[in-house]
Amino acid sequence: MSSAPRSLRPATLCVHAGTYHDPATGGACSPVFASTACAFPNPANENVYPRYFNTPNQRVIEQKLAALEQGEAAVVFGSGMAAIATLLFAHLKAGDHAVFQADLYGGTVQFVQELQRFGVRVSFARTAEEFPAGLRPETRVIYVESPSNPLLRIMDLTAIARLGRERGVLTVVDNTFATPINQNPLAVGLHAVVHSGTKYLNGHSDVNAGVVVASSAIVERTRECAVNHGGMLDAQACSLLERGLKTLALRVNQHNQNAARLAAFLAGHPAVADVLYPGLPAHPDHALASRQMRGFGGMLAFELREGRSVDALLRTFRLVMPALSLGGVESLVCVPSRTSHRNLSSEERQRAGIRDGLIRVSVGVEDIDDLIDDFASALDAAS
Ligand SMILES: Cc1ncc(COP(=O)(O)O)c(C=O)c1O
Predict the structure, then answer these.
(1) How far apart are CA 178 and CA 183, in angstroms?
(2) Are residues 227 and 294 in the same domain?
(3) In whole angstroms, what is the distance from residue 276 CA to residue 259 CA?
């Protein structure tokens, strides 16, 4: 494994941290260890098996992500939801209580409903100021997402970290939208970071993955639970994810720049009623985002003025693809009420503030002038 020192800067860690140096060839890339049957007994007396989360390709990802997120350790999963579900199952039991941010990725909200079938009690808070009142003696987890999907709200991570440490409650943040390039929640005191690795970490819309990064103790407890839940990532997918991660810093810097330009264009367009992007001074959390993030990310959302047709807009794009998912090199749009949050009841969507006409954009790394041209002609068609 690469002994890249942790003091290196993020772009360097993306390229070098965790690389498995192949003694047979001296190759620059980690080899793919495809075996699911590994010799036992062996000199280390270790049972190596992909579902035990201990293969060389899994370790490469874990070391790279632990270095990038400034955590002691990491564990890689077959999807973001596998990472989130396993971390929460590992740290909650019947009778415990957890407080979740009200505005979260729809799949996480559905999982919270599932958790309640196992006797875990839950409540919701909208802002960092609302969390303390939500805590009970039996509260074990505080769970936030920043920026949130799809409303791009920013949670005060320093306040959440302080609350969790004062009250002895595990704090978890979904860092999928920000990526470790734009913010490092563990560095401000959060206990655990989760990611959908399917998004920016892989970055090419061709791998499903997830990761938990935290202290060694939290990661070991999560890994013990993961062995029983089984949501592992195989060697080929780890290898693709490793390749994607090498360009994470390059890509995220371009996503940041492109999203800032597109947000400014949309905010000045007469057909657009509202733009949600934390980099815009008009965003309600702009000051907090400026303090907390190194870049504002590649995600934004907007709404059309009344009478403008969302369907006409989606039909008219030439480059931008109406699609699920996000965080890849290509620009994607979706309507969360019909996609990521469609399994929520309209009451739940209303509670979360997700209006039916909201359009979410994952701004890719294409030439920004081509993207703006595409949006300009689609907005004309929608009017
Ligand atoms: C913020 C966020 N967290 C978690 C997930 C779940 O990730 P996956 O689809 O890899 O399970 C998603 C998926 O869209 C997401 O947007």
Answers:
(1) 6
(2) no
(3) 11
Residue 1 lies in a domain: no
Query: Which regions in the chain score pLDDT beneath 70?
Result: 1-3
What is the Cα 257 distance to its own chain's centre?
A: 19
Q: What is the edge-to-edge ordering of all strands in the sheet holding 121-125?
A: 73-77, 210-214, 192-196, 170-174, 139-145, 97-101, 121-125
Q: pLDDT tens for residues 96-136?
A: 999 999 999 999 999 999 999 999 999 999 999 999 999 99
What are the pLDDT digits (tens) for 76-100?
Answer: 999 999 999 999 999 999 999 999 9
Closest Cα to atom 15 of ligand 1: 105
Q: Report how far apart, in Å, the C-alpha atoms of 109 and of each of 44, 57, 342, 343, 344 are.
A: 42, 31, 11, 10, 8
Spatial neighbors of 26 by CB under 8 A, at least 6 apart, are none
- In the prediction, which pLDDT does 3 show? 64
In the structure encoding, which two tokens stand for residue 206, read together? 């061709």
52 is catalytic: no
Is residue 338 part of the annotated active site? The answer reads no
Write the CATH number for 195: 3.40.640.10
Query: Model-level pTM greater than 0.85?
Result: yes
- Whether residue 2 lies inside any domain: the answer is no
Q: Ligand 1 pocket test: which of 179, 198, 205, 334 has the largest number of ligand atoms within 8 Å of its C-beta?
A: 198
End of a domain among 246, 272, 304? 246
User: Same domain for 256 and 228?
Assistant: no
Q: Which domain holds residue 59?
A: 10-246
**257 and 241 in a common domain:** no
Same domain, 83 and 229: yes
Cα separation, 287 vs 268, in Å, equals 21
Ligand 1 contact via 179 beta carbon (within 6 Å)? no
CA 259 to ligand 1 center in whole angstroms: 20
Question: Which of 246, 265, 284 corresponds to the end of one domain?
Answer: 246
- Could you give the number of structural domains in the chain? 2
Indicate if 367 belongs to the active site: no
In this structure, the answer to whether residues 177 and 277 fall within a common structural domain is: no
In this structure, are 227 and 121 located in the same domain? yes
β-pairing, 210-214 vs 272-276, is unpaired
Please check whether residue 264 is in contact with residue 280, taking contact to mean a CB–CB distance below 8 angstroms. yes
Residue 226 confidence (pLDDT): 98
CA–CA distance, 212 with 323 (Å, rounded to integer): 26
pLDDT of residue 347: 85
